[in-house]
Amino acid sequence: MGGSCSIYIIYGVICMVDRVEKEKLEFIQLSPFAAQSAHTKGRIRPETACLLRTDFQRDRDRILHCKSFRRLAHKTQVFISPEGDHYRTRLTHTLEVAQIARTIARALSLNEDLTEAIALGHDLGHTPFGHTGEHVLQELTEGEFSHNKHSLRIVDVLENNGQGLNLTFEVRDGILNHPTSGSPLTLEGKVVQISDKIAYINHDIDDAIRGKVLAQQELPKKCLNVLGDTCRERISCIIQSIVKESDMKNDILMGTEVKEAFYNMREFLFKHVYVGSVAKEQEGKAKRVIGELYQYYMHHLEQLPNSYKERLKTGDSKKQIVCDYIAGMTDRYAINAYRDLFFPKSWHIY
User: Fold this and answer.
1) 6-342 in CATH: which number?
2) pTM: predicted TM-score of the whole model, two decimal places
3) Residue 69 and residue 197: Cα distance in Å, rounded?
4) Is the distance from CB of 158 to CB of 164 less than 8 angstroms?
5) Are 298 and 322 in contact (CB under 8 A)?
6) In degrees rounded to 5, what are phi and psi of residue 134?
7) Structural domain boundaries of the chain?
8) Which of 51, 198, 296, 312 is found 20 to 30 A from 97 (Cα to Cα)?
9) Which residues pair with 89 in a beta bridge?
10) Which residues contact 242 (CB under 8 A, 6 or more apart)?
11) Alpha carbon of 180 to those of 71, 176, 177: distances in Å?
């Protein structure tokens, strides 16, 4: 038998399931609207297929093991440098998106591996200090920078020592098009797009209440009456509505009443948490850190690591290279870099 295949026990029978068998099972088990790994549009560079894993499983594993994914643990979700162990980071947000998206994909018999790969990769390009850092780089580059485009650049170019992860078209499309303005070409991409909002709306309410930015009684009653009083109830309500409305349809939909309450709650958070609340009191300082780092490195490119300076030889602009470096920083790395560059150091004789 050797060790070339996975072993599964189904109804008491030992079965050997390799990649080809898994691809066949997808045709049998998945919805006719699901993406089939055997029919992927392929990778930027052709590769020999894995013996055990489908292409989408392989992509998920590459994202999970890459450096950019690990750095998400130290990047802001909403609260900048919060004092407390239970506030979400960009990594925990990503994991919650993946869990919600997998639940929806499984219920609708969509490709769970593709869904998970997109979810795990969708925020790889986020800057330090979350959307605050992103907005600064957008302004400095006259709109050229966005976290979703940078997420795609990471998996295409920057990861794996400048070789990229060489992911499939479907995963790359889902990563690029996950914002509200995007139009994913697969249902799995659409599932991640809505799961991103489900996750952040609910966990940001939880964190805002924990941080005393909001009180439970301040949440809009009309929304709670439809969605539920607790995070668990709201997520369950929204997922059930999506599954009910999207079953056997070539789209990802939500019931009218639930959708209205869902987006009204999102609007409430933008007004009371994301803009101008005490949760954003460190925003000005974070903007200054990102802005001054950008200006410094634009005039001192020699201070960048060699791996970034080498990208000049590939034709990348100074602006692109500086954005690559800053966007890859964690919150604490950016703060330390700023301190090293702009704070006076103690003088002593060697």
Assistant:
1) 1.10.3210.10
2) 0.92
3) 20
4) yes
5) yes
6) -60, -45
7) 6-342
8) 51
9) 76
10) 104, 194, 252, 253, 254
11) 24, 11, 8
